[in-house]
Amino acid sequence: MVNIVVVSHSKRLAEGVAELAQQMVQDGCRIAVAAGVDDEQNPIGTDAIKVMMAIEEVDTPSGVLVMMDLGSALLSAETALELLDPEIAARVLLSSAPLVEGTLAAVVTASSGASLQQVEAEACGALGVKRSQLNPQASRAESEVLSQASAIPDAALSSRWVVRNAHGLHVRPAAALAQALSGFDAEMQVEKEGHYASPHSVNQLAGLQVRQGDTLCLHAWGKQAGEAIAAFQQLAHNHFGEALPDVADTILSGKLVAAAAINAAVVRFTPTNLLCQRQSITASQIDQEKARLLQAIAASVDELETLAGKTQQLLGADMADIFSAHALLLGDEELVQAMETRITVEQQNAESALYDELMAMASAYLAMEDSYLRVRELDVRDILQRALRHLQDQSPQLPVIAEPCILVADELFPSQVIALSQPHVKAICLAQGSVLSHSAILARAAAIPMMVAADKVTELARTGQQATLDFASATLTLR
To answer: Transmembrane residues, as ranges (predicted)?
Structure first.
């Protein structure tokens, strides 16, 4: 089985990528991390000796795929190959794939027993899924490939399943499907509404964009087609490894007893979002601005990992995953490289490069048809404000709350909800927001009642004013 080495400038980032990847499969390939340098003052960097030792640790006759983030990681990996025993070096492949998406795809593919070249190809194709979701026009050719099924013989066996998973066949259930169907002596195709994908490719499965309520069909033919169909049916009945709430077949009617209304004083929270401080730079300032950017990103990633740990203690691992994902997104090497390109080519300062890339991402989310994905633009702006705060040396803004209150605001970022999860906050009322946002999901997990889309509430409510939040009528009465 092919094993993986993750090389990054940040030890925390590499360990986070490895942890996320290992959750995709059970008893899968081995992952070694070679990240950071042994310098407490300046720990960001790569070390060729660490890379060499990591490769030796997971060396296997099937080969080792090395995943890397920024430029000098490649230099360290190339130096490591020169230091290795030639016999070991000959079965090592350096991947040009994106670190996060590529590693996830590589681990799933390697764990299915694929060859080193197949694992590398799957890793390199990982970015196409994100591209198709954020910019469908740019990846039309990739989407058309999924529409073309290989010849499915008339004798093929088929099994259909209506997906009930709340978020469809996202990366974790897709990985479970790929792993469950690996090893069978059979040809297979997965179909959704006339679009086809290989069940062994997490990238292609994700490209099908299977949502809750979609019908998924497995076609299989060959010596072990029956066994493959049986494995698919068993996994599908287990909802691809995800626990779903039990739904009774019988619907009973009755009268709802509404929760008690909350009476408390208003605290109006009006944080000032940091603006982009644009400034042209000279060629001699490019390296300095890149360093500022990387330091802000590293500090933000550290904070997000700490926040994920706090959230896990308060609300559990599922809610903590929100901030772990924030950390992975901000540390994504493709994103960082795009920011660095803006600094180098357009001679933008660090703030401008960060702002333009993340706001472009937020706009792409807002343009999506899927309402669940569309509200993720709030998460991107949350990350942006955190990184800007480090670049501009600003402290986070939070209200001082000493008495029970109903917190009123235009909107709240997910990280602000966690910061405000305290006994005195009895309820939250937002002028904007969505019930699908991570802010609302976190508030619900923290047992803080929240009302969203209360138009003009921040215009009419004032701090100290008494108010009643009535759940039966979904109204806030100001007195």
So the answer is: none
Q: Dihedral (C-alpha) 281, 75, 387, 418: value to the nearest 10 degrees?
A: 180
CATH number of 262-269+397-478: 3.50.30.10
Give the pLDDT confidence score for residue 405 in this predicted structure.
Answer: 94
Residue 127: C-alpha distances to residues 130, 331, 393 (Å): 5, 15, 33
Q: Per-residue pLDDT tens for 249-270?
A: 445 556 555 556 899 999 999 9
- Predicted TM-score of the model (pTM): 0.54
Instruction: List residues with catalytic annotation.
Output: 9, 170, 438
Q: How many CB atoms lie within 10 A of CB 345?
A: 9
DSSP symbol at 33? E
Residue with tokens 């299977």: 210
What mean pLDDT is reported for the chain?
86
Question: Strand runs (DSSP E) across 233-334, as ranges?
Answer: 262-268
Residue 4 CA to residue 2 CA, distance in Å, equals: 7
CATH code 1.10.274.10 region(s) in the chain = 283-391
Helices (H), 59-124: 71-83, 86-89, 99-111, 116-124
What are 263's two structure tokens?
């009476």
Counted residue by residue, the chain has a size of 479
